[in-house]
Amino acid sequence: MFEISRYRREFNEIGCIGKGGYGKVYHVKHKLDGADYAIKKITLSSARVRRIEERGQDELDRLLMEVRTLARFDHPNIVRYYGGWLEYTMPAASGPAASSDEPQLTLHIQMSLHPLSLADFLSPQSESLSNQGFEFRHCFHPQISMRILLAILDGVQYLHSTRLIHRDLKPSNIFLSFHSSPSLSCIDLSSCQTCTHPRTPTPYLTIRIGDFGLVTEIAQPDGGASSVLASKAVGTELYRPHDSSGKLDESLDVYALGIIAVELLQRFETKMERLGRLGDARSGKFDGVVAERTVEGGDELLECIRRMICEEKERFSCREVRERIEKFLSP
């Protein structure tokens, strides 16, 4: 069941490009095909290993949920999955298990590489962008902002069509690639008629949703086995509704998309300003989001965002959000 040192045997590790509560992501180069990939490593605690040994297949299925979910997807706005495996690795020298020489069981998930996130693109001082010599930043103009949101929505609606919800949508879980020529489902950043900054030589942007560690099935409307409420709130607090009933449905992802819409339309110079303004949006206050931009359809766009972040029973569906964004973007 477990392979020994496949990671070291097949890949050269370039460096860590992301980390969180559910693991670390590394930029690697495959020794045989020479291509670059991202590999997410999720180290299993000794307690988790014991649960697998004691509970068997059910616990193993929970562990492999993200791998099996990614393997099902085929969409230009979702990260591409290449494979997954379990193997034993030695603890990092600075990790919590550094004092132990015991190998740790680690889940590896091989995916398409997207070294930048939407969070990087929105940040006025992104080290990730600067380190790659890419000084271009998001312009925050409504037309381009809504094209980006529509690309994210494409991926979310595909996810929902498979009866799954993400539950952790946020800019750091949305990944970007820049290209010099157009590709499927890309956004032409040079098409922004409002921008005055110099054109970038790589103006074509591809959006892909990633990090499916909290994905779960949509509750069945007929009270079936999947209709149970969430036992506890999960995901990043800023992007989940504070008044949620706990029902596992598409509205959870719509709420997160509403917060992301605010971030796409309003520039924040500091982390404190961002937290304050997004907190205001969660409370129904949208000063400066679209009002300061005299754009045709701005009022309707702002109302759409309000209806994405409002209380659950009044919240728009993905279809309703799409209709209003497409209307805003139409000539």
UniProtKB/TrEMBL annotation:
Domain of life where this protein originates: Eukaryota
MF term (GO), any: eukaryotic translation initiation factor 2alpha kinase activity
Signal peptide: none
Binding site for ATP: K41
CC annotations in GO: cytoplasm; nucleus
Family matches, as PANTHER family: EUKARYOTIC TRANSLATION INITIATION FACTOR 2-ALPHA KINASE 2, EUKARYOTIC TRANSLATION INITIATION FACTOR 2-ALPHA KINASE EIF2-ALPHA KINASE -RELATED
Family assignment from sequence similarity: Belongs to the protein kinase superfamily. Ser/Thr protein kinase family. GCN2 subfamily.
Protein's recorded name: Kinase-like protein
